[in-house]
């Protein structure tokens, strides 16, 4: 086997049976702590997803305990939108979970191929996710790792949330971090997980809000060159309204996203069930075709409080309840971000309201005093003599904008170099020569690119990239190959599923009788076990019909030698019993059991063989006259033969007989009488 045969072939687990129950098939996915395989549960004859902890990690007792706790926590959840956990076990130091297998795709595939989605479609995808999280939150479980990769969509369209591996039962303190470990994917982490490692149901709500933002826009709200920068953004910057990227999104959808992703968890919905109710209200408004619903938008908008620091600075908001209007002019001196919203660094940690039509609607805490009347700022007429200054300012601004456009649009970018057919190390070195970094984005099979070499890059060669940017490498795993699994002894459906799981095709199925393999199970197959094959190649099966039935011939009345030879040639064993019979000649078969129907090879057939008529006593005819003696013997069933004694006197008296009187003989036997 060459080195180009892909990892599946060299994978130590593929083809292995764990816990004498799970036959490991193709690898489905690989994560930070475990690898997921498609496997066959041979006991229940069903396909499962087997999540196997990485080699060596089982040596960590704390990690092993957390892995087992994952199974117990997830097993509590029985919900149509939750991937079911069936079993947890250990095999020679290998810890694993047996879970429901969901063939299909992930939400990441949907985002990559279809985003941005319409608000209605995005909410329809989010609804079953929230349903699953609601069940978890009701059970006191926080998922902590909601992301598109953990949302599975089956071929039938059912949405299921997977991998409660980071979930923990909520404690009374709500602290669920383990030894300060920051768990979860950074792009979807709630701010509190970054700052102090604590998590509750509202942390999942935040991640769900980020998920909705990504469905609506096709991009993440916070990005950065490093995970630390992204995590910092979650803590210090609000999630912008999706309409900043997709202008057609209604205000109440913006409000829903920003409510769910409020940095202050106290401002978010209490759990997934509360968020689900809000989603249903927004979905109803979308069905009615409402471009805006002020009441709904007001109910969902994140409440903001007035803020005045010790120096007397007023942030421009008024404490109280209700809403107050502010003109855009009030923020003229505040620095703005590139998308037109205030930079979070100037927001004192509070969410800046979305601006529409020069008017900003600011919510207030319920239960307070009525809002003051709307404040309007009347622009002052320009003073004389400032025209030249204004012109210079405009020119300076134009120059600045042009310079900024050149810098941000051209100067900062370069072309992606050609890294194809290089090893990852060589590609990294070549990219480094022009100041770029590389990362392993994915691995895939290739019939043309040798294993370990770059087959594709993102961005593609020649595409624009920042001069300090990062190139994602897609590295070849070599030709896709699989080993033929051991199929002997499996029933036909299980054998087909085992082949499907590694992309091999069930070929010709031949029914054949077998004296040893039960009906319906595979007797043999070709190519043989452990043969390396391409996906799509066929494997032929011979399936047992059970033992071959044999028709029983009737040998009644035949000589026993002939009968025995006939039955043994057919494959039966013969059991013989001898009996007297007046009608059947000695040595012939009186009866046979069974004498018809079918039996299987080596089954027993019983023969009753005749010994002839039963024996009778020979009568005593000595000293009787010949005529009388003949009559007595004939009446007894014997035949008579007369012989004269050497000294015959002519008296015709019986002087002797053979067989002698009192002996037993079969009727018909000849009795010789000697007369004198």
From TrEMBL:
Keywords: ATP-binding, Kinase, Membrane, Nucleotide-binding, Serine/threonine-protein kinase, Transferase, Transmembrane, Transmembrane helix. The keyword Membrane applies. It catalyses: L-seryl-[protein] + ATP = O-phospho-L-seryl-[protein] + ADP + H(+); L-threonyl-[protein] + ATP = O-phospho-L-threonyl-[protein] + ADP + H(+). Residues 414-477, 478-545, 546-611, 612-676 form the PASTA domain. GO terms for molecular function: ATP binding; protein serine/threonine kinase activity. The chain crosses the membrane at residues 388-408. Gene3D superfamilies: 3.30.10.20, Phosphorylase Kinase, domain 1 (3.30.200.20), Transferase(Phosphotransferase) domain 1 (1.10.510.10). It comes from the Bacteria. Residues 22-286 form the Protein kinase domain. It holds the Pfam family Pkinase. This is non-specific serine/threonine protein kinase. It comes from Kribbella flavida (strain DSM 17836 / JCM 10339 / NBRC 14399). The lineage of its organism: Bacteria, Bacillati, Actinomycetota, Actinomycetes, Propionibacteriales.
């Amino acid at each position: 086997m060459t080195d180009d045969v892909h990892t599946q072939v060299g994978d130590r687990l593929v083809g292995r049976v764990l816990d004498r129950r799970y036959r490991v098939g193709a690898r489905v996915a690989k994560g930070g702590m475990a690898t997921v395989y498609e496997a066959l549960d041979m006991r229940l004859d069903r396909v499962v997803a087997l999540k196997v902890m990485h080699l060596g990690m089982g040596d960590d007792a704390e990690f092993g305990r957390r892995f087992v706790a994952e199974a117990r926590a997830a097993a509590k959840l029985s919900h149509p939108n939750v991937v079911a956990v069936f079993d947890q076990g250990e095999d020679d130091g290998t810890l694993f979970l047996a879970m429901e297998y969901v063939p299909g795709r992930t939400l990441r595939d949907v985002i990559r191929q279809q985003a941005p989605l319409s608000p209605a479609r995005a909410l329809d995808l989010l609804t079953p996710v929230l349903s699953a999280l609601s069940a978890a939150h009701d059970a006191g479980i926080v998922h902590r790792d909601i992301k598109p990769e953990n949302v599975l969509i089956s071929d039938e369209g059912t949405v299921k949330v997977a991998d409660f591996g980071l979930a923990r039962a909520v404690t009374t303190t709500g602290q669920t971090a383990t030894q300060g470990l920051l768990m979860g994917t950074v792009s979807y982490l709630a701010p509190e997980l970054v700052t102090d490692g604590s998590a509750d149901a509202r942390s999942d709500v935040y991640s769900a809000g980020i998920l909705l933002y990504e469905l609506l826009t096709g991009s993440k709200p916070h990005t950065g060159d490093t995970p630390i920068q992204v995590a910092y953004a979650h803590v210090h910057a609000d999630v912008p309204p999706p309409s900043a990227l997709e202008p057609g999104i209604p205000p109440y959808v913006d409000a829903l996203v920003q409510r769910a992703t409020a940095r202050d968890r106290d401002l978010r919905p209490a759990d997934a069930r509360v968020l689900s109710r809000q989603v249903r209200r927004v979905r109803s408004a979308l069905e009615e075709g409402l471009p805006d619903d002020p009441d709904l938008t007001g109910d969902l908008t994140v409440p903001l409080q007035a803020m005045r620091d010790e120096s007397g600075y007023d942030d421009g908001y008024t404490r109280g309840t209700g809403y107050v209007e502010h003109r855009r002019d009030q923020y003229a001196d505040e620095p703005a971000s590139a998308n037109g919203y205030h930079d979070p660094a100037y927001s004192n940690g509070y969410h800046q309201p979305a601006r529409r039509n020069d008017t900003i609607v600011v919510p207030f805490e319920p239960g307070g005093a009525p809002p003051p009347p709307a404040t309007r700022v009347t622009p002052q007429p320009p003073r004389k003599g400032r025209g030249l200054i204004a012109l210079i300012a405009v020119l300076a601004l134009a120059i600045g904008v042009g310079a900024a456009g050149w810098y941000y649009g051209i100067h900062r970018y370069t072309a992606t170099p050609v890294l194809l057919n290089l090893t990852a190390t060589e590609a990294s070195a070549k990219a480094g020569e022009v100041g770029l970094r590389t990362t392993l984005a994915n691995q895939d099979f290739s019939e043309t690119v040798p294993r370990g070499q770059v087959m594709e890059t993102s961005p593609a060669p020649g595409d624009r990239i920042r001069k300090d940017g990062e190139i994602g490498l897609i590295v070849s795993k070599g030709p896709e190959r699989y080993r033929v699994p051991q199929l002997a002894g499996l029933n036909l459906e299980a054998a087909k599923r085992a082949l499907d799981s590694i992309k091999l095709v069930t070929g010709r199925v031949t029914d054949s009788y077998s004296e040893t393999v039960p009906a319906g199970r595979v007797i043999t197959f070709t190519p043989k076990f452990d043969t390396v094959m391409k996906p799509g190649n066929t494997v032929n099966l011979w399936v047992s019909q059970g033992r071959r039935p044999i028709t029983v011939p009737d040998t009644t009345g035949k000589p026993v030698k002939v009968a025995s030879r006939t039955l043994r040639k057919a494959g039966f064993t013969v059991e013989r019993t001898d009996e007297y019979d007046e009608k059947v000649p000695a040595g012939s078969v009186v009866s046979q059991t069974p004498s018809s129907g079918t039996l299987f090879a080596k089954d027993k057939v019983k023969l009753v063989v005749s010994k002839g008529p039963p024996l009778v006593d020979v009568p005593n005819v000595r000293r009787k006259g010949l005529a009388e003696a003949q009559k007595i013997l004939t009446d007894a069933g014997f035949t008579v033969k007369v012989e004269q004694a050497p000294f015959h006197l002519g008296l015709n008296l019986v002087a002797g007989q053979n067989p002698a009187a009192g002996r037993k003989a079969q009727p018909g036997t000849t009795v010789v009488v000697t007369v004198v």
